[in-house]
Amino acid sequence: MIKKAFTSNQWVERSLKAVWHPCTQMKHHEQFPLVALSHGQGVWLYGQDGNRYLDAVSSWWVNLFGHANPTINAALKDQLDQLEHAMLAGFTHPPVVELSERLSALTQHQLGHTFYASDGASAIEIALKMSFHYWRNRGFENKKEFICLKNSYHGETLGALAVTDVAIFKDAYGPLTKQAHIVASPDCRNAKNGESASDVAKLALADLEKTLQQHQGNIAALILEPLVQCATGMAMYDASYLTGARELCDQYQVHLIADEIAVGCGRTGTFFAVEQANIWPDFLALSKGISGGYLPLSLVMTTDEIYQSFYHDDITKGFLHSHSYTGNPLACRAALATLDIFENEQVLKKNEVLAQKISAAFDWTRQDARIEHVRQKGMIFAFDIKASALKNGFAKAFFKEALSHEVLVRPIGSTIYIMPPYVLSDSELSHLSKGIQTTLEQVLINHA
Ligand SMILES: *Cc1c(COP(=O)(O)O)cnc(C)c1O
């Protein structure tokens, strides 16, 4: 095994020479650690140096049932001996058929047609292109603009960036994108004196309606992250916003695209976040957790009505989009094993209990005067550090200190959050809560 041949430091050095790491100013690694991993087990990641880290962010929100999960491992080993990959144009295979059918059933067959890609941003590109192309096929050539929410995040390819509102990702590439209309976010932290989360949602809906009125004939779709805008600091909002947005989209003949790449697969408590608003979107994008965090897989589900608008003798009315690994059998098989676990182990029911335990374990956050906006949706728990308690470089300092307490947590600005794998045990939860509390004392005191 190659991993024995080098020390942890040697792996880090070699990586920094040859690997360009994502979402990273590489020069920062002069001061902040790059961690060389050797293996994972359950909620733990193990370093080459023998240290361990509780993966409280599910490795960028992808892992659901722990690293080296026995059920998913077994399914993948079985699939390896049957079919590792084949093109999906002109061919099909059992894993992609079964996955599409089971996903359709999970939407009560409202979204019965599934298109596949590999990463989340590609799924967003697909949903945007499909929406635009649907309207063109139906004779509405002018519907080629999109609406997104303030502080939205939908990925970092150029099309996805156009509907993303995160300055640090977007500003450098602004000249390359066709910026969408940005409407108010229903982020419940926007509540002013006495306003409820549903009041905030109402105000945000009024802003959405204004934009729809102004640009009605030109808008193809509204895209949003249901219930939680994750990438911009776990901004949580009331489900009534989704119900209202669905009504407005119907009224103004605009598609609703639900980006459930982060919030899908049970993160907010229900399998799909939109279920909490009793609505279905016209397009629903999934990725991240759907393969259990094992393999790149993304998909867009849509309605029969939209599918039928592409079904035609004329090839140009078809959806001519593809990726080399579309519908990869291994990734689909990992997804099927993931859905098996959800069913066989009654995961959503068990998570209701786990979510309460998380809330209880972090009760100390509600007592700390330096902390505000303690919030939770299902398996996502977050709180903010008040500006008065913060020093520059908080997020990086926290990350570094937390590692020394065997915890992997990456704050977003002043927001600390956990989005752990669903297999977190009581003792692991306690380790996590204590690790975060201790880290916070170190980081805030060191900077005071
Ligand atoms: C992660 C994410 C994406 C992008 O997915 P990638 O696989 O990173 O391209 C898009 N939307 C949301 C809400 C996400 O969290």
Report what the structure shows:
The longest helix is centred in the C-terminal third of the chain and has 22 residues, at 426-447. This protein has a seven-stranded mixed beta sheet with strand order 4-12-11-10-7-5-6, sandwiched between helices. It starts with 7 loop residues before the first helix and ends with a helix. Strand 8 (228-229) and strand 9 (235-236) form a beta hairpin. Helices cover 37% and strands 15% of the residues. With 448 residues, it is of the alpha/beta class. It has helices at residues 8-18, 58-61, 70-80, 94-106, 120-137, 158-162, 167-170, 197-215, 240-251, 304-310, 329-344, 347-361, 394-403, 426-447; strands at 37-41, 44-47, 52-55, 113-117, 145-149, 181-183, 219-224, 228-229, 235-236, 255-259, 283-286, 298-302, 371-377, 380-385, 407-408, 415-418. The site of pyridoxal-5'-phosphate has 14 residues, from helix 5.
Order of helices and strands: HEEEHHHEHEHHEHEEEHEEEHHHEEHEEH
Spatial gap, N to C terminus:
47 Å
Strand-residue fraction?
15-25%
Q: Cofactors and ligands present? A: pyridoxal-5'-phosphate
Q: Specify the CATH class of the largest domain.
A: Alpha Beta
Broad structural category: alpha/beta
| Main β-sheet description | 7 strands, mixed
Question: What does the average pLDDT come to?
Answer: 96
The low-confidence runs, each spanning 5 or more residues with pLDDT under 50, are none
Share of residues in helices = 25-40%
Q: For the CA atoms, what is the radius of gyration?
A: 22 Å
Number of domains: 2
How many strand units?
Answer: 16
